[in-house]
Specification:
The chain is α+β, with helices and mostly antiparallel strands and 151 residues long. The chain contains four helices and seven strands. The strands form two sheets. It has a four-stranded antiparallel β-sheet with strand order 4-3-6-7. It has a three-stranded antiparallel β-sheet with strand order 1-2-5. Strand 1 and strand 2 form a beta hairpin. It is elongated, with a radius of gyration of 20 Å.
């Protein structure tokens, strides 16, 4: 009897491993706004849903690093759902406090930008299977706002 159960487990595992899963890509990080408390950047994420029905997104978690240090982190709870058989574009706001930018003065002073690494975790609820996490990462440079951007 246990041999039959093991065969059933292996069969299900093979079928689940071969299933299509949503795919995501992180395309761009741009300046969105400047306030008294922080600078807000938006990360653009494109998610392709291979299924004919919509899938709920449970959470998007992010970590922004510069010079090997974490300068911002957070999560976006319940950002919506992915439309069936389509690519859904999501904007993830990343808020960087000014006091952290001051500590990065050496990097900023050279070229008025921040060399960054952004890590995103997109958690999607797949029926029957449960939650899956799609890890994304991107490296690049973020330009800081000038006085003309603020006023």
């Amino acid at each position: 009897m246990s041999h039959l159960v093991d065969k059933a487990k292996n069969f299900v595992a093979e079928k689940v491993a071969g299933m299509k899963k949503p795919e995501a890509s992180l395309s761009d990080v741009d300046l969105k706004g400047v306030s008294r408390e922080c600078i807000t950047y938006h990360a653009m994420v494109a998610v392709n849903n291979p299924y004919s029905h919509s899938l709920p997104i449970c959470e998007i978690a992010y970590t922004l690093k510069s010079a090997g240090r974490q300068i911002a982190s957070g999560n976006m709870a319940d950002p919506g759902s992915l439309a069936g058989n389509e690519t859904t574009k999501l904007e993830v706001p990343v808020k960087v406090p000014y006091n952290i930018l001051v500590s990065l003065a050496r990097d900023i002073g050279a070229d008025w930008d921040i060399d960054y690494e952004l890590e995103l975790s997109l958690i999607i609820d797949l029926p029957v299977i449960g939650n899956i996490t799609i890890p994304l990462s991107s490296k690049g440079e973020i330009k800081l706002p000038t006085l003309s951007d603020v006023f």
